Amino acid sequence: MIKNYKFKKENYNFWLSRINNSERKVCTNDVNLDFIEEDQIIKNLKNNRNILEIGCGNGLLVKELIKTKKIKKYIGVDFVPDLINFCKRKFFNRKNIDFICKDITLINEKTFNFSFDYIISKRVIQNILSLRLQLKVLDNIGFYLKKNGFMVLVESSSVAQNNINNLRKKYKLKKIIPPFHNLFLDDHQIEKYSFKNIKLKKIENFSTNFYYITRIIYAYYAKNFLKKNPHLNHPFQIIAKDMMTDYKLLNIDLSQIKTYIFEKKT
Question: Using the 8-state DSSP alphabet, how is residue 205 labeled?
């Protein structure tokens, strides 16, 4: 393993330790949010396209893609061999589905011999604990987009999390600290960075309602009325999921999870 960012080995061991969790909890603890993230990616994809997924984990996203889309070719990449072997066993009878064990920070112009209509990921780039390397990886992966291709990434935003913590401070709630293995994306840096292979099309702030209800309202209610810590299985989490598409509750960016959409630079 080439240790080109801090805690890389610890990051690897963290994901390896989760492999025996229930299917929905291998890559996240917040199952309700996980469904929302999948929808954000899937709705941006068309049928009969070539797809590269970086950080495919246990294959949960491609499982949903198979149900909802016609896939021309799919390749999933992850740097944990046990997860790749799991996926190969799970989808062994799918001739158009393949998995490769590869560290995404080492992807370069010689990694693949073909290009993709879509490159997708779900909370993967944020595991690279270096802003400089995050931007470099995005550009290197973007090399493999077709002319009219799109990169659709669901990732955490440091800008939105700062807004959440400022609001939590107002209500005397504890500051939320990202996990040790995450460096949330800096929207401002991404917006002004000059990529060689891609350009930012838009950032979709789709989860403000969810985070306002779960991280502010429910957190305040749990602390002051339930007298206990919030948990991810509380009905408030379901309410937040169901109210995702309602009118935006606040005129402030609390969308800690966002969809970052890039297109091929021509």
Answer: -
Instruction: Describe the chain by its helix, strand, coil percentages, rounded to 5.
Output: 40, 20, 40
| Amino acid present at 134 | Q
Is there a contact between 184 and 156 (Cβ–Cβ < 8 Å)? yes
| Location of structure tokens 């393993």 | 1
Residues 57-102: tens digit of each pLDDT: 999 999 999 999 999 999 999 999 999 999 999 999 999 999 999 9
Listing from the earlier edge strand, what are the strands of the sheet with 116-122?
Answer: 97-101, 71-78, 49-54, 116-122, 145-156, 257-264, 198-204
Give the Cα separation of 126 and 28 in Å (integer): 13
pTM: 0.95
Q: With contact defined as beta carbons under 8 Å apart, do 78 and 59 qualify?
A: no
CATH number attached to the domain at 8-160+177-208+255-264: 3.40.50.150
The answer to whether 66 and 94 are in contact (CB under 8 A) is yes
| C-alpha to C-alpha distance for 75 and 56, rounded to whole angstroms | 9
Tokens for 222, please give them: 């749990």
Per the structure block, which two tokens stand in for 42? 């899937």
Structure-block tokens of residue 203: 């950032």
CB 166 within 8 A of CB 216: no
